Amino acid sequence: MLTHHRKPVCLSLLSTDLPLWSVIETAATVYQKDQDRFHILLTEPAIYDIATPTGIPEVATLPAGKTSRLLWLEISPQRAIMTMQGNGQFSYRHLWEQGMYGISRFWLQGESLGANSQIRLRNYTRSLTLTGKPLPEHLRLEYDLWSDKVQLGRYILNLEIHQ
Predict the structure, then answer these.
(1) pTM for this predicted structure
(2) What CATH number did the domain enclosing 24 receive?
(3) Phi (first) and psi of residue 12, to 5 degrees
């Protein structure tokens, strides 16, 4: 039976070899699919742009008519899938499995009909750790991102679900 819980979460992504770090703190709905499988749905809050000429952070607003970006995670102790959809311009989907190569796909939508582009990359999951019972409390993914034979960085994705 599908059960759900509303929880505060912190989702962070950082690169260990590039100057990249991003954090989202928001509320999420955790759906329990079965004993060790969960779906987590969250809406990305306002985006802050810290690269302003004055150095003072400003809230970047979505243009009128645009929807919020939704993040959907499917997690289990063996696999994680993350999909971002919304805003009509950019979407992605990542598949990670412990010790395996997965696929990372990015879609860019153009202004005209049929003007869609897809970028397909590989990722190698070095470590996937899911802790917490009966509901997940922490997911940590360490992975490398590849384009053919070129490594595009090493990343850590952390999801903390506050009880």
Answers:
(1) 0.81
(2) 2.40.128.20
(3) -130, 150
